[in-house]
Specification:
Elements: E1 2-13, E2 16-27, E3 31-35, H1 42-49, E4 57-62, E5 65-66, H2 71-75, E6 78-81, H3 93-102, H4 108-121, H5 137-148, E7 155-159, H6 167-182, E8 186-191, H7 194-200, E9 203-208, E10 211-216, H8 218-225, H9 229-237
Parallel strand pairs: 3-8, 3-9, 6-7, 7-8
Antiparallel strand pairs: 1-2, 1-4, 4-5, 9-10
Helix pairs in contact: 3-4, 8-9
Length: 243
């Protein structure tokens, strides 16, 4: 079953075309990745999917709902882990979760229980009363993941979920995402880490300059083109992810 469908999605900012007529389907329960360098259009596509911005043209449907028609119904059923840290620095770890739960009209008692369970899930129980300013970068990323799960979403949007993390912290986030995937939460992520795409994505869309070049399983892409996923990317785009 398709949980996201995009047809000829285009997003322009003035005369600049950030996303140029892309089409794709994302199936319920899969982990779908957008792979490409900064400026490829990945984050813009994600922004349209989670109703942060409307498309300039084309159609995007999430849960079979047009993102331009009823974005509120869509937002209630998904979670978003942003690339940037937008946690409230004036609140403690658990207060960040409790305040966020109110946006979904979650009763206070239920919110406290969910917050405690999510802190245990991301291994931050002992940091519940700590101020955000005293968390490491890896802890903040894990807390952002917990916050994105507060409404028990059917679809989880992750924009560069492990950006800037050391290898140990990155693997800790991958472990949590793997657990969610096994429990049939649909995951959509952007990344420029090849290992991340190979490890957790069922399919990837390789993007460059606002266009989707190809969509397939990482293993099939590597077998078809006879090399690593990085080699495939270089072959298809003619440039490295660092460009």
């Amino acid at each position: 079953m398709q949980i996201v469908t995009a047809k000829n999605l285009t997003k322009c900012y003035g005369t600049f075309t950030a996303v140029d007529g892309v089409s794709f389907d994302i199936h319920r329960g899969e982990c779908f990745g957008f792979l490409g360098p900064n400026g490829a259009g990945k984050t813009t596509v994600m922004g349209v999917i989670h109703c942060f911005m409307p498309p300039t043209s084309g159609e995007v449907r999430v849960f079979d709902i047009d993102v331009c028609v009823d974005p509120g119904r869509i937002k209630a059923r998904l979670g978003v882990m942003p690339q940037d840290d937008n946690l409230d620095p004036d609140l403690s770890v658990i207060e960040n979760l409790l305040v966020y739960s109110r946006y979904f009209d979650i009763p206070q008692k239920t919110g406290k229980k969910l917050a405690s369970e999510l802190l245990a899930f991301v291994e931050l129980t002992d940091k519940a009363a700590v101020n955000i300013r005293d968390l490491s970068g890896g802890m903040k990323r894990r807390l952002l993941l917990a916050r994105a799960l507060i409404n028990s979403p059917e679809l989880l949007i992750l924009d560069e979920p492990t950006v800037g993390l050391d290898p140990h912290s990155r693997h800790a986030v991958w472990e949590k995402l793997g657990y969610l995937k096994k429990n049939e939460t649909t995951l959509i992520l952007t990344t420029h880490y090849m290992e991340e795409a190979e490890k957790i994505c069922d399919r990837v869309a390789i993007m460059d300059s606002g266009k989707i070049i190809t969509i397939d399983a990482p293993q099939r892409l590597m077998e078809e083109h006879g090399g690593s996923l990085e080699y495939v990317y270089l072959k298809l785009t003619g440039r490295s992810l660092a460009d």
